Amino acid sequence: MTARWLVLENGEVFKGKAIGCDQLNSGEVVFNTSMTGYQEMMSDPSYCGQILTLTYPLVGNYGINRDDFESITPYISGLIVKKASVHPSHFRCRFTLHEWLKANNIPGLMGIDTRKLTRMIRERGTMKGAFCSSIDQIDEKVTRLQEQAFQTNQVAKVSTRTRYVTPASGKRIVLIDYGAKKGIIKDLNAHGFEVIVVPYNISSDEVLSLSPDGVMLSNGPGDPEDIPEAVETVRNLLGQVPLFGICLGHQLLALAGGAETEKMRFGHRGGNHPVKDLRTGKVAITSQNHGYTVNPASVEQTDLEITHINVNDRSVEGLRHTVVPAFSVQYHPEASPGPEDAKDLFIEFRNMVDKNQTPASKKEGIVHA
Ligand SMILES: NC(=O)CC[C@H](N)C(=O)O
């Protein structure tokens, strides 16, 4: 196997072995502590522009299957693992990790001390990093990393360009796709909703012309402040139709409601983040993947209310609008991968949609996707 290096902007270097394709990408190096679900993580569009480090030491042991992708195209800039399984074993397995990375033009690195890298990121915060194929390239790469900025405007890259429908016989949800995971669409369908998926830069008038009974604001990559046009759309939709935001969708609802967001030091990425519902005191173990958060002090002067907090660091994990039907969570009720403690939020959304009597919910409309 060929040698490959990971270089960080602070000059730290990790030597390992190359997996996946030969392209030497750079990106924001982040870590996820989930013990399983690597296929879903690698295909979650929210990681666009990031090099994903998995802290679980053995990755790829059940291979890659046809069913568990969160999007058709994967957007990670790279993958870092301690050990990549060469002989996966599972009845659904179609490819090895290496084969799939190569086929999708994703470079990977294996054989480094992922715990050391993770500790470094926890202390220093997420950093820019790049792969190198020779030790001679390192100094030049470090300089280049220091000069370059983190990637921006990833949503435009991952959002659908055309509208499409996933049918069901119940009420109609328009899902604004900022980089939506398939799991969210699947769960909406499972709750009986017909789902119309639309591009991120849709206007509120266009959304309302589809006669939605509710609007889902999806997850997605990057900084919510990169897409002011999306914030504007959400602001105009408030009070017109019930809203449910997940992750980036939650951050956009916060901005639309007048609160602020900020970058976290190293974010929350994993499958065991405890979240407390402040209304019931109940704690849910949740799946998370975010690097930005809502500033709690900024919520005070708005019509929003904090409904959930993270038990580990008390960061904002859920919001509700106190005047109009709208709520959001920073974590992933659809799991994919991860614990399913928070699945009831889809029922909460359905109840909200059923109770709501906005003009939009009374309109009938036929949609030609
Ligand atoms: N999963 C997401 O939607 C992530 C939201 C946002 N890009 C963040 O990193 O905070």
From TrEMBL:
| Swiss-Prot/TrEMBL keywords | Amino-acid biosynthesis, Arginine biosynthesis, ATP-binding, Glutamine amidotransferase, Ligase, Nucleotide-binding, Pyrimidine biosynthesis
Question: What binding partners and quaternary form does the record give?
Answer: Composed of two chains; the small (or glutamine) chain promotes the hydrolysis of glutamine to ammonia, which is used by the large (or ammonia) chain to synthesize carbamoyl phosphate. Tetramer of heterodimers (alpha,beta)4.
Among the GO molecular function terms of this UniProt record, one is:
carbamoyl-phosphate synthase (glutamine-hydrolyzing) activity
The record's similarity note reads: Belongs to the CarA family.
Against Gene3D superfamilies, the record matches this protein to: 3.40.50.880, Carbamoyl-phosphate synthase small subunit, N-terminal domain
Protein name per UniProt: Carbamoyl phosphate synthase small chain
GO BP, sorted A to Z: 'de novo' pyrimidine nucleobase biosynthetic process; 'de novo' UMP biosynthetic process; glutamine metabolic process; L-arginine biosynthetic process
Biological or metabolic pathway of the protein: Amino-acid biosynthesis; L-arginine biosynthesis; carbamoyl phosphate from bicarbonate: step 1/1; Pyrimidine metabolism; UMP biosynthesis via de novo pathway; (S)-dihydroorotate from bicarbonate: step 1/3
User: Pfam families from the xrefs?
Assistant: CPSase_sm_chain, GATase
So what does this one do? Small subunit of the glutamine-dependent carbamoyl phosphate synthetase (CPSase). CPSase catalyzes the formation of carbamoyl phosphate from the ammonia moiety of glutamine, carbonate, and phosphate donated by ATP, constituting the first step of 2 biosynthetic pathways, one leading to arginine and/or urea and the other to pyrimidine nucleotides. The small subunit (glutamine amidotransferase) binds and cleaves glutamine to supply the large subunit with the substrate ammonia.
Annotated source species: Alteribacter lacisalsi
Tell whether tRNA processing is among the UniProt keywords: no
Give the enzyme class: ligase
For whether the record's keyword set contains Amino-acid biosynthesis, the answer is yes
Which portions of the sequence form the region CPSase? 1-171
Its domain of life reads Bacteria
Domain Carbamoyl-phosphate synthase small subunit N-terminal, first and last residues per copy: 2-132
